[in-house]
Design goal:
mainly alpha, 9% strand, three-stranded parallel beta sheet, 44% helix
Length: 179
């Protein structure tokens, strides 16, 4: 396993642990968030939603990067799943917050980033959904919030940069859950 992946994996695990502690501190009625971790490439093996972060931590330890990416296709599939879930649910629509960590490259997608942007904008007319991308300076542009990790494209990772990105993600999650 690449040393840079071990750093990212470790920090993602620490991020999940912090979130887990916060959600455990809330009352059961307040913690209605559902979580899902999706590894790429494994588009057909999406773990089910969970109200606990424990399955995500378990799944995270099994992810090994393999260098083949169809990121745009997987994001489109997720957006279509969200659209279908919301069309079939008469209940109040839940907000969605997706965070993607990427090396900035992909070579296996049928869909282009512009198509992802089109699907996302269409869905945002009916559902509150945010998509944030964490990656190098050159990463794919889906027209979304971008959190840059300087040096990632040269296999250099400053741990404080990723920590800062996760802190911003956690702040946004708090804001969403308080609204």
């Amino acid at each position: 396993m690449e040393p840079i992946w071990e750093k990212i994996q470790s920090q993602v695990g620490a991020h999940f642990n912090r979130l887990q502690e916060e959600f455990r501190a809330q009352s059961g009625a307040d913690s209605i968030g559902l979580f899902r971790l999706i590894s790429i490439p494994a588009p057909m093996e999406f773990p089910p939603y969970s109200s606990s972060l424990d399955p995500l931590l378990l799944h995270l330890n099994q992810i090994i990067p393999s260098g083949r990416s169809d990121l745009s296709d997987i994001i489109v599939r997720l957006l279509l799943q969200i659209q279908e879930e919301n069309e079939n649910s008469p209940l109040k629509k839940s907000p969605y917050f997706m965070v993607v960590i990427t090396d900035g490259w992909e070579n296996g997608s049928y869909f282009k980033p512009s198509k992802v942007m089109e699907y996302l904008e269409g869905l945002q007319q009916h559902v509150y959904i945010e998509l944030w991308i964490i990656g190098p300076e050159h990463h794919l542009d889906f027209g979304t919030k971008r959190l840059t990790l300087i040096g990632l494209d040269r296999q250099i990772l400053v741990e404080e940069d990723l920590e800062c990105c996760f802190q911003e993600v956690e702040n946004q999650l708090k804001k969403i859950t308080q609204d």
